[in-house]
Amino acid sequence: MSLTTDAPVPAPARGLNALGDLSEHLLSVLERGGADMSKLGVPAQPEPEDGLWEDVNVPQARARRNIWIGSIREASHDRYLQLRLTDLDANQKPKTLQNWLSSLVEAKRVGAEPECLQMIVPGNIGSGKTTAVVALGTEASEKGLLVRFVKHATYLNWLRPDSAPSGKSSYSVRKDHVEADLLVLDELCGDMTGLATDFVCSKTTDLVESRLAAGRATIYTTNLKSRRRPGSQEISIVDILGERLVSRLGDRAASARIEGPDRRKPARPLDW
């Protein structure tokens, strides 16, 4: 007669693959999502002496790259991921952006604060601003910086109750965007046509001032001028966010205006 037992099956010996053939695949999926691999039992790699993860064979380096790629895909800008600064035309200020990126990487390498913390990229609609800053962000992520992309309106929406991406809270959304080495904030004040609400002003001010206080770099794109020109009816960022915040945007900042025709305009006007 055979005997049965309810005794638990012994755990696999240390070093064996507890998840079987799925282990490597599951870990790669979690890693692409930016998971902290050390909490999953993956041995942490030693911190690089210069603070930068560039070798994509190191899990931390791949995780940082995947955070950037994920933020771009969240914004449905996948097609821009193949672009680098060398793919930009002269109107998109590739040299200015490259020099700024080099200063950020060098500051990170030596543990210093960049002299220029904020880059403002204004320009007319369709001039290629977003293309340029995504190319910058991709190169920054390849050089070991933790970079995130988000549209201004999207960030504000994610901070509202029950509006954050699945599995996130408004607290974690703020934390992610405040703590990135480089934040690409696209379309500052996009589609805003009047004085911002207290919520918009307070959350935008918090993001800008928190990143400045921490010495973290931010690049902004906008279709609007900082202040209304005399006699102009065009709304400005001061009209929306107020003079105090625009003053903060000018703190340790430079500007790279992108001018040119609307690249998205059809060759012939559509008529229907």
Task: Please describe what this structure looks like.
The chain contains nine helices and five strands; from the N terminus they run αααβαβααβαβααβ. The N and C termini lie far apart (86 Å). With 272 residues, the protein is of the alpha/beta class. Mean pLDDT is 84; it is low at 1-5 and 9-22. α3 (94-110) packs parallel to α4 (129-142). Helix content is 38%, strand content 9%. The protein has helices at 23-32, 59-74, 94-110, 129-142, 152-158, 170-179, 198-214, 237-241, 243-249, and strands spanning 118-122, 147-151, 182-186, 217-222, 253-255. α7 (198-214) links the parallel β3 (182-186) and β4. The protein has a five-stranded parallel sheet, with helices on both faces.
What's the layout of helices and strands?
Layout: H1 23-32, H2 59-74, H3 94-110, E1 118-122, H4 129-142, E2 147-151, H5 152-158, H6 170-179, E3 182-186, H7 198-214, E4 217-222, H8 237-241, H9 243-249, E5 253-255
Helix pairs in contact: 2-4, 3-4, 6-7
Structure in a nutshell:
Helix content is 38%, strand content 9%.
Total number of helices: 9
Overall pLDDT confidence: 84
Strand order of the largest sheet: 2-3-4-1-5
The percent range for strand residues is 5-15%
Q: Secondary-structure element sequence?
A: HHHEHEHHEHEHHE
Overall form: globular
Largest sheet: 5 strands, parallel
Spatial separation of the terminal alpha carbons:
86 Å
Runs in which pLDDT lies below 50 for 5 or more consecutive residues are 1-5, 9-22
What's the gyration radius in Å? 23 Å
Oligomer: single chain
Got a strand count?
5
Q: How much helix is in the residues? A: 25-40%
Structural class: alpha/beta
